[in-house]
Amino acid sequence: MHTVTIIPGDGIGPEITKATVKVLEAAGVPIQWEYQEAGTNALEKYKDPLPPQVIESIRRNKVALKGPLTTPIGSGFRSVNVALRKEFDLYVNLRPAKSFEGVKSCWKDIDLIVLRENTEEFYAGIEHYIDPAKSAAETIGVVTRSGSERILRYAFEHARKEGRKKVTIVHKANILKFTGGLFLDVGREVGAGYPGIKTEDKIIDNMCMQLVMNPHQFDVIVTTNLFGDILSDLCSGLVGGLGLAPGANIGATVSMFEAVHGSAPDIAGKNIANPGALILAAAMMSRHLGHPELAGRIEHAVAAVVKEGKHVTFDLNPQNPVGTMEMAEAIISRLK
Ligand code: NAI
């Protein structure tokens, strides 16, 4: 039995988390959940968006499943998602983008992995107004050799383990000659140690265009924090949206699994959100916990329900949708 920290989150978080827990229980993944609150809920209750007991729980259990957490835009508390990644040094953000039969999308048969550096650069939150009148602001994006090396090595190791053929390093080293240049240099050095894998690099703007025009030319993509954030949503869009896009934040000792999407306040509390992304993230977590067969069964069940298209949420079937829990029930019935 594994003890796993679970943070239902806010917005659609509690609904999709409840659905996900039901699926995992039905699949027989041996997990005992330790519920914790973070974000706006915790701020109301404990006057702290990231209370110490959340950190203690994750540190103890080493594995967490997290629903989305709202981050106020512009002002207010800083992102709890980013704080958790920093606290546990979760330097890898792994987001697969895979086509599902039955999902309306511009491309078929996409099977990409986006690996995003998760702790450095413009997400580190080193920013301030330069004067009291707030006439200008600056953000400092620090890229280090060691930070670059560990994510790039992870990307090549992951590519090797998964039998992937190519790693594309994405950067803006033509303009950001130091930060982008360092990441690219380290990428080429690391790539040279993997002769069986083709290493190439692309400038971010061209990469966006290439992904939209001809995504099949890519395999594993590795990039810095902000570009990775944007590219992973772009890749989710290639396979039909955020509803089925899972993600993992991985560090040396702790791993945290979540959906790529956010708290979707526009549809929260209505039992209409697609639970698929968090269920697929939970499948990734089950694999990480040493249950690849159960993970595969969950993934197949999701794929079967999506392919059939009868018991899916509005984002996948706008004409005749079912609710969050009904989609989860359909997935459960396919597990058997
Ligand atoms: P979002 O991902 O929450 O929503 C974008 C669009 O996708 C919305 O139209 C939403 O209704 C739809 N959508 C998202 N998830 C869906 C699902 N499961 N089923 C059906 N439709 C779905 O992005 P947005 O609106 O930019 O952000 C809302 C909040 O979430 C913000 O406070 C943001 O900071 C936070 N956020 C949190 C993340 C996390 O906890 N890891 C990741 C991304 C955003």
Helices, strands, pairings?
Blueprint: E1 2-7, H1 13-27, E2 31-35, H2 40-46, H3 52-61, E3 63-66, H4 80-87, E4 92-98, E5 111-117, E6 127-129, E7 137-139, H5 145-161, E8 166-171, H6 179-192, E9 198-203, H7 204-213, E10 220-223, H8 225-238, E11 246-250, E12 255-259, H9 276-288, H10 292-308, H11 324-335
Parallel strand pairs: 1-2, 1-3, 3-12, 5-10, 8-9, 8-10
Antiparallel strand pairs: 4-5, 4-11, 6-7, 11-12
Helix pairs in contact: 1-9, 1-11, 5-6, 7-8, 9-10, 10-11
The protein binds 1,4-dihydronicotinamide adenine dinucleotide.
1,4-dihydronicotinamide adenine dinucleotide (NAI) binds next to loops.
List key phrases describing it.
single chain; 336 residues; alpha/beta; Isopropylmalate Dehydrogenase; 2 domains; ten-stranded mixed sheet; 11 helices; binds 1,4-dihydronicotinamide adenine dinucleotide
Give me the secondary-structure category.
Answer: alpha/beta
Strand order of the largest sheet: 2-1-3-12-11-4-5-10-8-9
CATH structural architecture of the largest domain: 3-Layer(aba) Sandwich
Cofactors and ligands? 1,4-dihydronicotinamide adenine dinucleotide
Q: How helix-rich are the residues, as a percent range?
A: 40-55%
Q: At the third CATH level, what is the topology name of the largest domain? A: Isopropylmalate Dehydrogenase
Multimerization state: single chain
Fourth CATH level, the homologous superfamily of the largest domain: Isopropylmalate Dehydrogenase
The tally of structural domains comes to 2
Strand and helix order: EHEHHEHEEEEHEHEHEHEEHHH
Number of strands: 12
Radius of gyration: 20 Å
Principal-axis shape: globular
Q: What is the percentage of strand-forming residues?
A: 15-25%
Mean pLDDT: 95
CATH class of the largest domain equals Alpha Beta
Task: Describe the sheet with the most strands.
Answer: 10 strands, mixed
